[in-house]
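[stage:ingest] chain + small molecule (calcium ion)
[stage:ingest] validated
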Amino acid sequence: DFPTADSNYHNYAEQTAELRKIAADHPAIASLSTIGKSFQGRDLWLLKISDNVGTDEAEPEVLFTCQQHAREHLTPEMCLRIANRYTDLYGTDAAVTNMVNTREIWIVTSVNPDGSEYDIATGNYRSWRKNRQGPGTDLNRNFGYRWGCCGGSSGSTGSETYRGTAAFSAPETQRIRDFVNSRVVGGRQQVTANIDFHTFSELVLWPFGYTTADTAPGLSAAEQRAFATLGRQMAQTNGYTPEQASDLYITDGTIDDWLWGTYKIWTYTFEMYPRSGNGGFYPPDEVITRETSRNDQAVALFLSYADCVPRVINGTC
Ligand code: 0X9
Ligand code: CA
Ligand code: CA
Ligand code: CA
Ligand code: ZN
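[stage:predict] done
[stage:export] tokens:
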């Protein structure tokens, strides 16, 4: 489990219990299901939050994903904070109520529960990043858009950025792919927007990661401007640095390139606290509330534009 000093972090069983409690306490607006199982057979939980939660309504769908990377334990806390806020504050906070009534919010609190449980199993952190399939695959290099194209991942099994044997060779990325594919209804992708939470460096990143070019096939200058404008506005609220993903370093096979490249889902990667420093993956549990609440406004702004992100540059949808 987590070291005693960090016991306020939620391990997998505690995340599961918290999600069940949220759904049980708010049955009209929250419902818990699973998108399938991890390599080792853990459920990948999916919480839906919306008014008339049992009905698939014609509302923009927004997906929040956390903990692709095992050791990034602050990120499931971020997803749980969103889940708690958008249920507990329903009916009292006007902005929350409005978003719950007009969006369908999907939350996956841990994409990589096998890796995260492995990371804490001995009571001493292991700095584990990948999933637990064989040598471990970096889930954020295993998605099937320009997989392995551009030197942004590794073919070596021992590498921290091992891309796997094929695109979507990891059960966990398959489950995300199948869920997102399942949201094509009447020929139209219902998910309009995603934030994928990571740690660390305090960044707001937008596509593409596979190329340093600002625009590319499937990413027009106007779309790039919308990405950058909303990215900068969100970064204004949390003090993160906004930039294109490839400004950090080239990556290929990441979730954001796949979501945008395949479906034009407006997707951002947030790299949370801290900005830098040793022990960056393991901030003490005392910072959880401060560093997750730091993103409340950015999340609210993001949700408010989920009906039409180009609106941020006076564009239309
Ligand atoms: O390398 C990653 O996957 C992310 N950094 S982390 O330290 N959390 O592992 C950064 C990914 C940035 N690139 C894209 N999002 N495309
Ligand atoms: Ca502590
Ligand atoms: Ca609804
Ligand atoms: Ca819907
Ligand atoms: Zn990460």
